[in-house]
Amino acid sequence: MATSSPSTKSSLQVGQTDSFATRHIGPSPEEIKQMLELLGLSSLDELIEKTIPQAIRISRPLQLPTAQSEYTALANLKEIASKNQIFRSFIGMGYSDCITPPVILRNILENPGWYTAYTPYQAEIAQGRLEALLNFQTMIIELTGLEIANASLLDEATAAAEAMTLSYGVSKNKAKAFFVSQDCHPQTIEVVQTRAYPLGIEVIVGNHENFAFDQPIFGALLQYPATDGTIYDYRKFIEQAHKVGALVTVAADILSLTLLTPPGEFGADIAVGNTQRFGVPLGYGGPHAAYFATKEEFKRQVPGRIVGVSKDANGKPALRLALQTREQHIRREKATSNICTAQVLLAVIASMYAVYHGAAGIKRIAGNIHQLTNLLAEGLKQLGYKITGEYFFDTIRVDLGSRSLTEILQAAEVQQINLRVFDDKSVGISLDETTTIKDLQDIWQIFALGEDLPFNAAEFVGVIHECVGVIHELPLHIPNSLTRNSNYLTHPVFNQYHSETELLRYLHRLQAKDLSLTTSMIPLGSCTMKLNSTAEMIPVTWAEFGKIHPFAPLSQTRGYQVMFQQLEEWLAEITGFAAVSLQPNAGSQGEYAGLLVIREYHENRGENHRNVCLIPQSAHGTNPASAVMCGLKVVPINCDEQGNIDVADLKNKAEKHSKELAALMVTYPSTHGVFESEIKDICEIVHSHGGQVYMDGANMNAQVGLCRPGDFGADVCHLNLHKTFCIPHGGGGPGMGPIAVSSHLAPFLPSHSVVKMGEQTGIGAVSAAPWGSSSILPISWMYIAMMGGEGLTEATKVAILNANYMARRLQDYYPVLYKGNNGFVAHECILDLRSLKKSAAIEVDDIAKRLMDYGFHAPTVSWPVAGTVMVEPTESESKAELDRFCDAMIAIRQEIAEIETGKVDAENNVLKNAPHTAETLITDDWNRPYSRTQAAYPAPWLKEYKYWPPVSRIDNAFGDRNFVCSCLPMSAYNE
Ligand SMILES: *Cc1c(COP(=O)(O)O)cnc(C)c1O
């Protein structure tokens, strides 16, 4: 055996720990030195001194636990997770346990090829997830019987609230009241109430069976089946509602619609719901994809994103996000909704569940559950219980008669079973895909309260067991008038991938069409596409986190509580705030919640006339959209030539609106990629007029460990955990947008009526689940635990270094639009491409599409300044990758120069024709004025590895003129 050299030996020390930070941070210490050299700097600290105003830098290191290795952090989190108890939950209320098909679990949910992609703004390199989303929409359209559907919303409760505001917007009857059936899930009612309040909408919670329509309403919300399981025929109600000009929304259980008449067939205008039970783990509340379906006439008012069919430059069908002009980033304060990040990854999983099972498979699952519920009810009747409601799908309400609720619950506890308690006289039981005969026996035992069962369970079950799966042979507890007769999931995609081999290849084929972080950097400014490490992702699919119902008793979720508390403490330390709410499940929702908190604060002080929200023109579209949802009036603030807030304009407007000033919303560092030195003064101006400062924390990746919003004057901020804190974007969700607040705002943080949390003075629930999308919080926990305070701070410094390195390498080719006082940018930079339009007729889009030929995703396009791109490399990209991207951009600049000199045609060139697909290149009649090599292999690394865009440039306008948002017949592809 070889002996080690003395030098190696002496460098070995006991107790040296493995550092995750060195793997999270892309550039090595040697590379950092080289990059600093290019910038003419001697150290990272010098860079920070020249970038972040002295006045706001923190003077002490972050007080966080010491960094743990991946192995140790996983072990520690496992220990915390094991404090959660996994009971069988028959609680229902819109959440059902289910089986994630293993092929989908491993190849989508646990697969970075799917979860690290961004929202499909660059549609040509996102055809895979766009197809999966189109399948999702098709599934929703067919199951609900409505005409159009979007590509997911955040949860059922917020989807219902969105339905309310859509109805409010389009109803012509001028009413100000919204009827909500008392049979809706309680968390849905609460979120709708929270949303209605600041808009001055009155919510009438009542009994749909005797509502007399004696008060004008613009809309109504019904639950189908009702929260206690009862199936009502809503036709009469809907008829009456339509007579008074009101729109009706039906919140429907997606699985029940395989057996029940869909809402679209009995007159509903909108259907919303949760698709969680299609293969997505409970996860203590999320993430799950909500759906939203409606009539085509409302397509311009639909919240969220819609995938639509269009065609590419060769006339081939191609997908992209449709009707983009509806969305908040264009319509701003006139937007119909503030939704940005939604639940794409979970929508993809739900759609694949339908692809995996097909119509027959899903109907079989629904049939099984229904028959088990029948069986359960029969047994309980034999035990002397009354089942309320003649008709049900999977949920029954059991009348306890003279039995004691306490005894029933004690017996359930022994069996580790959760039931739903309605009141001390009745409980609910909701069955799901995982329910077995054994579960029924256990439930009967509970209700027998120690007595022997009066029937032979095995025999009783035996008779019926034979029939399970053959649902026609048993009487259904579904009224004839509501039995589904129409077909669904008839498209080939739901019928041809039922062997695992076929499905695996389909999933892989779609994945291969998309460009994710597994291919190359995605330098989207403001989106912070950093590493989502595997160690961070692993806990997400642990059963201890996944198999827990959001309304399980707190005694069973101690592990979650420990994790929440630690994460809240860490985030409070990082932001310099006193308290954190983990409820909002996207940045947009954090903005909304934070502004509501501010509103509530003013109201509490008798200042509810404060309704003006100042927002700089450079703000993200979600800001004005959120302000309007809170009933605030948006007053825009100008930006100066350096891209900073025009402080004089701010002063004027704050003075002018002094009496009504509610808040300023400000992004820091600004969306222009600069640390404004005046931020402290800006906060003071607002405070001096009695306003509060809301900081949009999307750019927190430039602050962690270096400065804290709580210190420099903000009162509340949200954090996009799917940006700064490593939750992957999932192709457009999930995300988490917790808010952090100063102590004077803490009493107003979100509360929840089902799981008691927050204070009496809280704003109510803003999400269906008390801690939002709980099951992805371990990702951020792992990140902070593995980085420690020092690692996080180093990451921020390197994020700023990477951005400055790129800015410096590119500035001779593309002007950097804004810089700070010392000539440095923050963690991102804007490259100005506007002059190229004049000099070469080149648009930003041409460069974005040409980057695809080089194997890259474009930076953020035309935001916050039209005609520019915003580049954000993050700390996770190595110098080699930054150089590769810069080389691509420089090479493209040379291609543009050839147009400028007239050497190359201005219309027919590599940029205008980009991206180039293999199909267009491998043709017998190549007749373009450039070579195929120039088109497809313009850089040396492409010979090593080439990502091929699957379609050519997509015609966006065509798709909006010919709106289609469900799967095309196969014949469309054969032409
Ligand atoms: C991403 C972003 C948002 C919206 O956050 P979501 O999580 O997508 O809802 C808001 N503001 C800025 C500046 C952002 O970059």
Automatic annotation (TrEMBL):
Region annotated Disordered, chain positions: 1-26
Name the record gives this protein: Glycine dehydrogenase (decarboxylating)
Family annotation (Pfam families): GcvP2_C, GDC-P
Function: The glycine cleavage system catalyzes the degradation of glycine. The P protein binds the alpha-amino group of glycine through its pyridoxal phosphate cofactor; CO(2) is released and the remaining methylamine moiety is then transferred to the lipoamide cofactor of the H protein.
Complex formation: The glycine cleavage system is composed of four proteins: P, T, L and H.
Keywords tagged on the record: Oxidoreductase, Pyridoxal phosphate
N6-(pyridoxal phosphate)lysine found at: 723
Domain Glycine cleavage system P-protein N-terminal: 23-447, 477-751
Domain of life assignment: Bacteria
InterPro entries cross-referenced by the UniProt entry: GcvP, GDC-P_C, GDC-P_N, GDC_P, PyrdxlP-dep_Trfase, PyrdxlP-dep_Trfase_major, PyrdxlP-dep_Trfase_small
Chain intervals with Polar residues compositional bias: 1-20
